[in-house]
Specification:
Elements: E1 7-16, E2 19-26, H1 36-46, H2 48-55, E3 66-70, E4 79-84, E5 89-90, H3 94-107, E6 117-124, E7 127-135, E8 140-146, E9 151-161, E10 165-173, E11 177-182, H4 195-212, E12 226-232, E13 243-249, E14 253-254, H5 260-272, E15 282-285, E16 291-302, E17 305-314, E18 316-326
Parallel strand pairs: 2-3, 4-6, 11-12, 13-15
Antiparallel strand pairs: 1-2, 1-18, 3-4, 4-5, 6-7, 7-8, 8-17, 9-10, 10-11, 12-13, 13-14, 15-16, 16-17
């Protein structure tokens, strides 16, 4: 479906831990479909040019991330959300959830507002997520969200990664499937090495896994692929010290924050490796220097897998508002990406 002219798209710009979150408010044609997954499919097949326009240059950049709010098909949810990035569509984004809670409160999207904390139910592509935003009657603050069931798909998987040799990874689901691995295995340091070197190592690992590993989720449709690789400092034993993390996802995109779903995956892995217990909180730091706290709330099941519900806490911020246009003869302005 071609662009509809005159084109004018309004957005609210936010960030969570430095990770940009572009909330699309209007200007995209109606997404057809009775369910969230049908709406995502419709956008992929008919309106993907709008994603490229908003994520790519000159309006966005290689690391841009966005969210489109739509009506939910789960009655208990306040709203549903489509997550977009440089490569396509995400199944989950905790960073976006954290910012969107404050946005939803500001825009009156929440059904039942309470003090000192308001519960918000958001339908994500991976399933319903419950979040809590602090609210004093005038302003909102920190947000904590509880994950969909997280589980370990495979531990200690040995890979032959080109240019790096044998690397041992854990495969964990936290709303998306990730490989989790210490940066030290690549002779890199999560805090001191260049981002470009860390990105290259993570991407090489993701690439091999996407070619070789067959994933399956026991309950949820459309999530059975390796979304990215999470590099860590290897500090997995319980401690009050901060542990560093970098998530490289989609098409070599580096999350500036500790990564919400990635943090869910890391704390779940630590739990199943007997490093932490229920309600033991840890602090995770992302590339920007901002931190999330996370803990395991309870053990549940997900099909044949032992699973946990995790809770991640962070803060999103408003950055501004944008209005984007496109002239009909502007080919370059329809979106491109440079690494």
């Amino acid at each position: 479906m071609p662009f509809q002219f005159p084109l004018k798209i309004s957005t609210t710009e936010m960030h969570t831990g430095g990770q940009p979150i572009r909330v699309v408010e209007n200007g995209i044609p109606e997404l057809q479909g009775a369910t969230l997954l049908e709406k995502i499919s419709f956008m992929k097949n008919n309106l993907d040019e709008y994603r490229k326009l908003l994520m790519g240059e000159p309006r966005g950049h290689y690391e841009m991330f966005g969210a489109i709010i739509v009506s939910p098909d789960i009655e208990s949810c306040d709203f549903a959300c489509i997550f977009i990035h440089n490569e396509g569509y995400a199944t989950m984004c905790g960073d976006a959830v954290i910012s969107l809670m404050r946005y939803a409160m500001k825009k009156g999207l929440v059904k039942n507002v309470t003090l000192p904390e308001t519960r918000v139910n958001i339908q994500c592509p991976c399933g319903p997520v419950t979040a809590y935003v602090t609210y004093d009657g005038q302003s909102t603050g920190a947000v904590r969200f509880q994950s969909v069931p997280c589980f370990v798909f495979q531990t200690d998987l040995i890979l032959e990664v080109p240019s790096y040799g044998q690397i041992t990874v854990d495969i964990v689901y936290g709303g998306a499937f990730y490989a989790i691995v210490s940066a030290g295995q690549y002779c890199l340091d999560i805090r001191e090495s260049k981002v470009s070197d860390l990105r290259a190592a993570a991407d090489a690992t993701t690439d091999i896994l996407r070619k070789q590993l067959e994933l399956s989720h026991p309950e949820t449709e459309g999530v059975s692929f390796v979304y990215g690789t999470i590099l860590t400092d290897g500090n997995d034993d319980y401690s009050e010290e901060i542990t560093d993390t970098m998530c490289v996802y989609a098409e070599k995109q580096v999350d500036r924050s500790p990564c919400g779903s990635g943090t869910s995956s890391r704390i779940a892995l630590q739990y199943f490796k007997n490093k932490v217990k229920v309600n033991q909180s840890r602090t995770f730091r992302g590339p920007s220097g901002d931190v999330f706290t996370a803990k395991v709330v309870k053990e549940v099941s997900c099909g044949k897998y032992r699973a946990v519900v995790t809770e991640v806490k962070g803060h999103g911020y408003f950055c501004g508002n944008s209005t984007f246009t496109l002239e009909e003869n502007d080919v370059t302005g329809r979106g491109f990406l440079l690494q």
